[in-house]
Amino acid sequence: MKSDIQIRIAESEQDKLIADQIVEQHHSYVASSKTVGRCLKYIIKHQGKDIGTFWIGSGFKPTPKAILNYFSMSQSQFDKIFNEVADNKRFCMREQIPNAGTQILSSIRKRAKLDWFEYYNNDLRAIITTIGGNKPGSVYLADNWTKIGETSGLPENRESVSMKWNDANEINDRFVKPDGENKKTILITSNLPLSRHHKYLISLGPKQATLI
Q: 166 exposed, middle or buried (CB, 10 Å; 0-12, 13-18, 19+)?
């Protein structure tokens, strides 16, 4: 099965549209392609068909306490590495392939550090995911991601807001206090290996690494 699954970055507008449509049509509880900040979209292909998508991008602020505790940092300290910790914004399949989930996660982990550096010129320390919809996150746990806590919970029908990307007026208009509802489980992986070749590419800098 390993040779049947390929993963590519959605670089063309057509590929980005494919990734968006998979999420909008098949995601079980966040059927929206709208994101804020960085977003690197992978497309998962199996036997000639695009069957899924996996996105990593900018995190969210204020940062949940569980994440700050994991890094043993205050919010101001974490702000300095904000761009080195990615949020798994979406993982969605429109066709289920037996036992493919952990293989996909493993494949993306092994390339994400280099991809993140090439696209954004930042190191990637970890990837975080938040699991909602009363789902246990079994596929992540099978790939040895670590459960570190829960979000504080926000109303389901709310406008998205970013403490980093929205201006003060937008934040004031959209801000809602946590109400303890719709909490999400937080999982994290810092197992983002680099081969010797990838380390060499990163040592050249993002432009050179992309050209090789």
A: middle
CATH number of the domain at 63, please. Answer: 3.40.630.30
Instruction: List the Cα angle 146/152/158 in 5-degree steps.
Output: 120
User: For 50, which DSSP code?
Assistant: E
- 132: confidence class by pLDDT, cuts 50, 70, 90: confident
| Secondary structure element (H or E) that encloses residue 46, with its range | strand 39-46
User: Is it the case that residue 11 has pLDDT exceeding 80?
Assistant: yes
pLDDT of residue 85: 98
Q: In terms of Cα–Cα distance, which of 133, 110, 135, 118 is closest to 193? A: 110
CA 44, CA 93: separation in Å to the nearest integer? 8
**Count of domains observed in the chain:** 1
Residue 37, by phi and psi: left (phi above 0), alpha (psi -120 to 50) or beta?
left
- Does residue 8 surpass a pLDDT of 80? yes
Parent domain of 132: 2-211
